Amino acid sequence: MHLLKKLVPFVVASLLLLAFSPLLAEYIKSSAAIEATPQHKKSARIITQVISRFHYKKQRLDDQLSEQMLERYIESLDPNRAIFLQRDIENFKRYKTRLDDYLLNGNVEPAFEIFAIYRTRVDEVVAYALTLLERGFDFTKDESYLFDRENAPWPANQKDREQLWRKRVKNDWLGLHMADKEPEKIVERLKKRYAGLSRRVNQFKANDVFQAFINAYTISLEPHTSYMSPSTSENFDISMRLSLEGIGAVLRLDSEYTTVQRTIAGGPAKLSGQVHSGDRILGVGQGVQGEVEDVIGWPLQDVVEKIRGPKDSVVRLQLQSKGSDASQVKLVTLIRNKIKLEEQAANQSIIEGLDGIGKLRIGVIDIPTFYRDFSAQQRGDKNFRSTTRDVRKLIKELEALSVDGIIIDLRTNGGGSLSEATELTGLFINTGPVVQIKDALGRVEVEKDVDPGVVYSGPLAVLVDRNSASASEIFAGAIQDYKRGIVIGEPTFGKGTVQTLVDLRRYAPDDTPDLGRLRLTMAQFFRINGGSTQHKGVVPDIIFPTAKYLSKYGERALENALPWAKIKPANYRVGLNEDLTVLVKKHQKRIDGNAGFEMLEAYERILNEYENRKKVSLLESHRKEEWDAQEKLRLGYKNRFLSSVGLEPESEDKQQEHGDDIDEADETESDAIKYIELNETARILVDAIRMRGPRAAMQLNQ
After folding, report:
1. Which CATH class is domain 346-577?
2. Which residues, other chains included, contact 391 with Cβ-Cβ below 8 Å and sequence gap of 6+?
3. Which position among 198, 229, 324, 470 bears the catalytic label?
4. Residue 481 designated active-site
């Protein structure tokens, strides 16, 4: 408190200097001022106190964090360095080591000054962009556009910024032109896009500015802590109530694009077979005939609100597939619906008659998510559905069919109930710890399987991929630590932290209005071997070749993500320590030259090259040649695979847009691709069974 008193004269003097800044006056003249409120001051103080006391990562709010906050706030407004000028950035540097002091004192005025300048700059670039649309462009001129400007210098002056925006608008126009849009339609669409940017920025309210600024602070700590203003909190509550009446997709903001992070089992997006991880949402239309509204550059929350709607209503998404050119888009029609529990439920199948496995039969249990019907449980329904209960039944079914081993397929399983991950592990071990949870005070709690007995003791493999997260990582990690089964696939997502929602009014007087909520990271998961699932994820015992392209995926790709850590191992008994060297060699020999794995790896390589590009050609002929060459390469690998499994190759002129329909051939192709990794997992498990010998295999199945 004594320090804060000393800082007050300094803060007041700084604000007076800003109030009389000629540069600031220029911006205020062109925009109606948005000002901080007393509630913001109160919220800021409470947020810093709550984070200081309860956040898992103990980091002081100091000059170093102040510098990061400034960078994150500017980045949140202008992520592609295309709005602010260099002189603006120089002007903002006065706050480089001061934001921590301001925030501790509840002073958030700098955020509003920076936003006022941002709003004026947006109006300037939009006005210029609109004039460019009237002129048209020459696409025979050989020039390029640097679209990824994350590390580029800020425009030195207005002339540099105009050159940047000329190329940006030209690139937007070229993408639509190559998608066979008429010139007048292109002008109409881009006018709406750019004018919409200005309109949305000018509709920002004080709470929006405050939220953006506080989140610049929270994201400087780690990526999963965030602040929700009162209006955002209200929308969050609505979305949670309606979360089962949407399209079933987890979305994230990637620069100017809303991107599908993953689809949820049982949801309309997943069931359609047309929405995939990495797809960019370019536009959203309501109903069967409603106009598709361009949503490029929109805030994530605004896009979510457009997609959300009542059950049985229609929403249309204009999608650009991951790794495709802006001209390659498709329109997907979805019917909003509840996520169906039966579609989320675990299911079983059998792999037999496969080359390389002889007469052995391998059971597969596909677990899309870790679910538990809490409502039915609370009602006292003794037969409520859960992952563990369903898997227990499926194991009995597979054993009745005399399977020789079982694969648990956790690909794209984003997690769910922690208790289910613990109980499911208990089906394969006798008793013992499953996961450790360390809180912000350093206390460690161990979640255990306390139910004696094993439901299945036979040969076991767990198949995971980059989208296996949270509860999936806990289960796979425990199976690996106990050496109960072989973990196969790609390193998992790597989210090993626990969040909770904090209502800020809990720390204010009773008559205080709503201050919003804080999503706070307050604990971390650790495996029973002491290592965290955070950051690294679960690294499989046998790794598929596509894993080499995952350095920028999952938790490890997020800035300020908590690092991998280690604590004391739990007390548990390890199973038989198998030498996997022979299995790895057999696996590698099989997939060398395998058309399926060649295709999967080629796809990843092409996508990786595409995502690492920072500029594109604005020469139409070159752009088309580049795209055609990429598609020809992709199609070549795909057709070699299709031929290898006896399916009809895909012709070059096959329609890329299917509308609402997926024909039978597409479904057959999709199933064949899904089984590339699954069939190889079955072969690996069969190799393990044969290495153990008939007697060992029989004993394991007792």
Report:
1. alpha beta
2. 346, 365, 367, 424, 427
3. 470
4. yes
Tell me where in the chain the CATH 2.30.42.10 domain(s) lie. 228-335
Give me the percent of the chain exceeding a pLDDT of 90: 64
pTM of this prediction?
A: 0.86
Token pair, residue 509, equals 């007087």
Where in the chain do CATH 3.90.226.10 domains reside?
346-577
Instruction: End-to-end CA distance of the chain: give it in Å, rounded.
Output: 69
Residue 266 has pLDDT above 90, yes or no: no
The band of 28, judged by pLDDT with boundaries at 50, 70 and 90, is very low
Write the single-letter amino acid at 215.
Answer: N
Assign domain 228-335 to its CATH architecture. Roll (2.30)
Closest CA to 488 of 420, 584, 424, 412: 584
Identified catalytic residue from 100, 172, 481, 687: 481
Catalytic choice (42, 495, 536, 638):
495
CB 71: neighbour CB atoms within 10 A? 14
Q: How far apart are CA 385 and CA 510, in angstroms?
A: 41
Give CA–CA dist 431/170, Å, rounded.
Answer: 64
* C-alpha pair distances (Å), 399 with each of 63, 559, 691: 62, 46, 21
Average pLDDT of the residues of the chain: 87
Residue 263 forms beta bridges with which residues?
249
pLDDT per position as a tens digit, 14-24: 322 233 333 33
Please indicate whether residue 382 is annotated as part of the active site: no
- Render pLDDT for 323-345 as a digit per residue (tens, 0 to 9): 776 667 889 999 988 776 667 78
